[in-house]
Amino acid sequence: MDQKHILEAALFVTQKPLDLHTLAKITSIGSLGFLKEMIESLQKEYSERGMEITETTDGWQMQVRSEILPAVASLTPHQDMAEGPKRCLALILYKEPVKQSDIIKTQGTKAYAYIKDLKKMGLVKKEKQGHTSILTVTKELENYFGQSKERIREQLATVPEPSSTVNKNPSEE
After folding, report:
1. What would the pLDDT profile of 72-117 be if each residue is shown by its tens digit?
2. Mind listing the pLDDT tens digit for each residue in 33-63?
3. The CATH fold of domain 3-68
4. From CA 149, how far away is CA 141, in angstroms rounded?
5. CA distance 126 to 103
6. Shortest CA distance to 92 belongs to which of 152, 18, 43, 145?
7. Which residues of 52-61 are buried (b: 16+ CB within 10 A; e: fewer)?
8. 76-157 to CATH, choices 1.10.10.10, 3.40.50.720, 3.40.190.10, 3.10.450.330
9. Whether pTM exceeds 0.85
């Protein structure tokens, strides 16, 4: 088997970045320098395609180019996430670190189940503090959505607030 094809397949199938040592083991390449050259060669091959190979703090990964992502985002697994957990995750990300009790005040007791599911998915971390817990998002969130949490947070900041005048009686204005 061609080591470069194995490297490409490993980067394609994984959902998490792979470090050089893991890639060396998978490809049976003993030289990290040679492996890095092979990764750089693949990066050049993918430079004109819809996918790209990027280096993160956790390792290397293949992902959809950010400029193409909006066109194909509806095909990703996170589209299957129900609206309640999505809103809960957005609240946690936007306000992190945030007290679980604040999320419950905003979304009601159903948020306990949302938080449990998000934690099970590895998207949220929960640390006990007094009578509540502090919630933060994990690095897995970036892998799951294919964007940095800062970029996702910026997108959340541009979502308009629901209009408070929708149900107003015109005579009240």
Report:
1. 766 765 556 777 888 899 899 989 999 999 999 988 899 999 999 9
2. 999 999 999 999 999 899 999 888 788 988 8
3. Arc Repressor Mutant, subunit A (1.10.10)
4. 7
5. 12
6. 152
7. bbbeeeebbb
8. 1.10.10.10
9. no
In angstroms, the Cα distances linking 57 to 16, 17, 41, 100, 139 are 11, 9, 20, 29, 10
Q: How far is Cα of residue 104 from the mean position of the Cα atoms in its chain?
A: 23
Burial of 131 from C-beta contacts in 10 A (0-12 / 13-18 / 19+): exposed
Please say whether the beta carbons of 90 and 137 come within 8 A. no
**Which residues are 135's β-sheet partners?**
98, 126
For 9, 11, 36, 67, 152, the CA distances from 29, given in Å and listed in that order, are 15, 15, 10, 33, 36
- Encoded tokens for 33: 């320098």
Both tokens assigned to 64: 């959809």
Rounded CA-CA distance 98/92 in Å is 6
Q: Which two tokens stand for residue 165?
A: 């005048």
Instruction: Please report, for the chain, the start and end positions of each structural domain, with discontinuous segments joined by +.
Output: 3-68, 76-157
